[in-house]
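User: Please predict the structure of the protein below. I'd like the answer in structure-token form so I can feed it into my own downstream comparison script.

Assistant: Understood. Taking the following sequence of 174 residues as input:
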Amino acid sequence: MQSNWLAPFWRMTRLVGASALSAAIATACTDANGPSGPGEAIVGPEGGAVRGVGGVTVSIPPGALKEDVLIRLALVDPPPTALPLGNEAEHFAALTPHGLTFDVPITVRVRTDRDDVRVVHHLTDPSDNTWEEITDVVSDGKSVSWQTRTFSVYATAARADTSTSRVEHVDIAQ
């Protein structure tokens, strides 16, 4: 005996076909916490790559995660806080969940519009607003990349030319 609550689904299958029904069920059953657009994907122990809008890409190798995690990449505008003096920011990218820790290093790549972008900073604690510089950044003139074991807010920047604004010595006794 067929249950009454299934009757509408059986009728819908005959009316719209199995593929349309599958699409409708998949849409209706999508978890609100699941991927919902570009720059979002579930990555698990097998690893994977997530491509975000604005040229942000994360490559997660196998073994970096112990379980499936919803990864989100987004450009941030306006920035959460100003960068340290001497840095001209280009992009701010939020990689979430913030504070996610990986068992092995992952690679983050951000497309750049300037060939002098070679500096990357990150916020270790979003409530602290203190930027820390990341060393070992690779720049090819079209993108910058680095390895990390945590997610955070990252900023790509160029060092400002401070050679013309530096004051060597001022004699105020005259």
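That's the full token string. Residues 47 and 61 are 5 Å apart (CA to CA).
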